[in-house]
Design a protein that fits this description.
By secondary structure, the chain is mainly β. The protein contains 4 helices and 43 strands. The strands form 11 sheets. Strands 1-43-42-41-40 form a 5-stranded mixed β-sheet, with no helix packed on it. The longest helix is centred in the N-terminal third of the chain and has 14 residues. The chain is globular and about 70 Å long. It starts with a strand and ends with a helix.
């Protein structure tokens, strides 16, 4: 295995580490400079963010010897996310409050590519959460109630909508305060592109206790639309937990905690009363969905949409015809709280068709149910096949495109993992010493990689033949991150080290000879930055 320490400005390896330790006794800033946010992949690169230095370190893996670059980000960075469907990382910074001799600075969002190119949008308020839509076009910064804003006063209902395809400008980002009925945002969900009032739109749905707020991202100058889910005198915390969109019929379906009903919002075209008014309004309806509905999925043709809902409190599945407003109850032999739709064959029919797998996580069931969706209303339980796994399911990693689901079970002599073949409807146990939380599919979905919480061996399963293997590395593994945009498959194992330590593994030839270890990259330029301060 090759080990590389990148070129540093003054010292190399241990000498620089000792120098920093000596400096740390005199200046506490050096003790903080090594802390990083959890790194993310941005195409062919890993991006580390060091909050104390307000900088990102980009490790470009396109070459055999990775290139290391530093990029400045806004002050007080609080999170870094990979941009959806783009080779870019997004760094959200709260800005500087100001102090003696230090001017305040506004919050910002910085986009960083694998080549180290950066662009920045000024947000103003110190947001601490970021959501993105499905194609990475839009981002919304908002306040997460579970995290501190780091300010004496702030408006928890303020949001900033950023068009990530456009540079900073007078209308980008759009900063506004959403209407509130006493609550604050719990999260943000974006719609796919859907036709509303005869025009393609992307909507942001802001989720709050007992109500939702809709923002039209294609017309940010228009006012938001807020929909109550309960009457004003109803004290229940009916918190929206899931949103499913029917893009063909401009309709969304909401599942909420503390409610046995599904909420249907159909967007009806109206004539706007002013330039800032919307040209649609939501018509609200409710559908009975059993006791404590836990998951739902939409299927069927645009003129015959149906919902498949699992309700563990009722121990059944329900098929709701959204056009006829009728419900078919399908009894299950095994309780389920998750729905997975997939196109694939079955043991009785080699022809691919839309089918469903129903299962339960959190250790409440040891069996799964396969559901044939054709004629489900008339055949009901005749269309259900139960498969016993013999062990309760704690977690699941679905990969329907490959026709498999990986289940995690409590550790036992029979193994803690099993691989479910959706087409054959068979489950093969996999002996494992680690839990499923540490598993990752690689970028091209050819293999599943498993990193132990503390151990030097990286495990993997080839999904073409389900062959397992392992690779011994030189240090305990903290996490594993698949990396895209590199010739062949690359997987990066992270090691615990304040100066930065990774091992890049060749996913097509998993050997020590083809692996490369890189250490010390977080030290690049560190002394110069300390002196500049």
């Amino acid at each position: 295995m090759n080990v590389t320490i990148p070129s540093l400005n003054r010292y190399q390896g241990v000498a620089l580490t000792l120098a920093l330790a000596a400096c740390a006794d005199r200046d506490p800033r050096y003790a903080l400079s090594m802390e990083t946010l959890p790194p993310v992949a941005a195409g062919s690169a890993l991006v580390y963010v060091q909050p104390a230095l307000s900088r990102a370190t980009v490790v470009d893996l396109t070459q055999d010897t990775p290139a290391v670059r530093q990029v400045a980000v806004g002050g007080d960075p609080v999170l870094v996310n990979a941009r959806v469907a783009h080779d870019e990382a997004l760094v959200l910074s709260r800005g500087q409050r100001g102090a003696a001799g230090v001017a305040p600075a506004p919050a910002s969002l910085t986009g960083i590519t694998a080549a180290g190119a950066a662009r920045r949008w000024t947000l103003g308020s110190p947001f601490n959460a970021l959501a993105q839509n499905g194609d990475g076009r839009y981002g919304m910064a908002y306040f997460n109630r579970s995290a501190s804003a780091g300010r004496l006063l702030f408006n928890p209902n303020e949001v900033a909508v950023v068009d990530l395809d456009r540079a900073q400008g007078p209308s980008n980002p759009v900063i506004r305060t959403v209407r509130s009925f006493g609550g604050v945002p719990n999260g943000v969900v974006f719609s796919p592109t859907m036709t509303v009032a005869g025009e393609p739109r992307t909507l942001a749905v802001v989720l709050s206790d007992a109500y939702v707020t809709l923002l039209d991202l294609n017309h940010p100058e228009r006012s938001e639309v807020t929909v109550r889910l309960t009457l004003p005198e109803d004290p229940r915390a009916v918190a929206p937990a899931q949103v499913v969109f029917d893009t063909d019929n401009a309709t969304m379906y909401l599942r909420a905690d503390q409610s046995n009903d599904l909420y249907v919002l159909r967007l009806v075209t109206v004539t706007p009363e002013s330039p800032t008014a919307n040209d649609f309004r939501p018509a609200l309806n409710q559908l009975a969905a059993g006791v404590r509905p836990a998951d739902l999925a939409l299927f069927g043709e645009p003129n015959a949409r149906k919902l498949l809902v699992v309700s563990p409190g009722s121990r059944d599945a329900r098929v709701i015809d959204t056009v006829a407003n009728t419900t078919t109850v399908v009894p299950l032999d095994a309780v389920a709280n998750r729905v997975l739709l997939f196109n694939g064959p079955s043991p009785r029919s080699p022809a691919p068709a839309l089918r469903a797998l129903l299962y339960a996580t959190a250790g409440v069931a040891s069996a799964v149910s396969f559901v044939e969706l054709t004629d489900i209303e008339s055949r009901r339980s005749q269309n259900v096949e139960t498969l016993q796994l013999g062990r309760v399911i704690n977690q699941a990693l679905p990969l329907p495109e490959r026709g498999v689901v990986m289940f995690g079970h409590p550790t036992s002599a029979t193994g803690s993992l099993s691989l479910l073949d959706l087409g054959r409807r068979t489950a093969a146990p996999i002996f494992s010493e680690v839990a499923l939380e540490s598993a990752r599919f690689d970028d091209d979905q050819q293999a599943l990689w498993v990193a132990p919480p503390s151990g030097e061996r990286l495990g993997y399963i080839e999904l073409n033949n389900f062959r397992p293997g392992e690779l011994r590395l030189d240090a305990p593994i903290v996490d594993v991150i698949p990396v895209a945009g590199v010739a062949g498959r690359r997987v990066v194992a992270l090691h615990e080290a304040s100066d930065g330590w990774i091992t890049v593994v060749d996913g097509t030839d998993v050997t020590r000879e083809r692996s490369r270890s890189l250490r010390g990259f977080l030290l690049t330029g560190l002394l110069d930055e300390g002196e500049a301060r």
